[in-house]
Amino acid sequence: MDRLNAVLTEMEAYAEKYNVPIINRESAQLFTKITAEANPKLVLEIGTAIGYSTLLLAANLAPGGKVVTIEQDEERIVMAKHFLTKAGVLEQIEIITGNAGEVVPAVGGKYDLVFIDAAKGQYLDYLRKVMDKLSPGAVIIADNVLFRGWILNNEAPRRFRTIVKRLKAYLDFVTCDPRFKTKVYHIGDGMAVSRYRGETNL
User: Fold this and answer.
1) Averaged over 131-157, what is the pLDDT?
2) What is residue 20's DSSP assignment?
3) What pLDDT is attached to residue 144?
């Protein structure tokens, strides 16, 4: 645990210095709790960045579990591998380089947990593309869903309105579709936690 915390602290410092978006401390506590309770065997992460949330996921896998994570920025992948190696978890992780919208449909397996933290305007597209890969009872966590509070107050600057509209569409989908049971947490920049109830709930 000391090794894990030491690497996480180093990653936080790196992220602050180089302006890399990572899950914040408060959100990380909830994220860790939910992941630990899910005890997932197979995890899909959409958006690796430098591997901060990847490390939290790997630390809470079921024995013999694996994280498949997707990132298109090759420089960030290099740093992610560096930190994940330092933490001693790289062997539990498969990093796929590419655009998530193109990669997700080709990824195999049935996932117990999916973490979405990539292009905010594409959240619903990612979810639709992963739905046939969800195990019964799978947990889907989406970060930054309240997007600076603009999802709630409808005051987004013009250049962000498309993203806000698409995030609202994501939240509407996971809130209203009977295949999901969703709770939105007002911490950090907002986190939506959805439990997949299966196609039988259509």
Assistant:
1) 80
2) -
3) 83
Known binding-site residues for S-adenosyl-L-methionine equal 23, 53, 71, 117
3-class DSSP assignment, residue 102: helix
Structure tokens at 127: 């979810």
Closest CA to 115 of 182, 146, 69: 69
3-state secondary structure of 43: strand
Q: Give the H or E element holding residue 134.
A: strand 134-143
Residue 173, token pair as written in the block: 């989908």
- Owning domain of residue 85: 2-143
Q: For residue 43, what pLDDT is reported? A: 98
> 152 lies in a domain?
no
How would you label 14-40 residue by residue, b for 16+ Cβ within 10 Å and e otherwise?
bbeeeebebbeeebbebbbebbeebeb
**76: which 2 tokens?**
């960030």
Query: Which residues contribute to the annotated binding site for Mg(2+)?
Result: 117, 143-144
pLDDT at 152: 59
Q: What is the pLDDT of residue 165?
A: 83
Here the CATH number for the domain that contains residue 51 is 3.40.50.150
Asked whether residue 30 carries a pLDDT value surpassing 70, the answer given is yes
Write down the pTM of the prediction. Answer: 0.93
> Helix, strand, coil % (nearest 5) of the chain?
50, 20, 25
Give CA 201 to chain center in angstroms: 24
**Total domains, the chain:** 1
Determine what percent of the chain is predicted with pLDDT higher than 90. Answer: 78
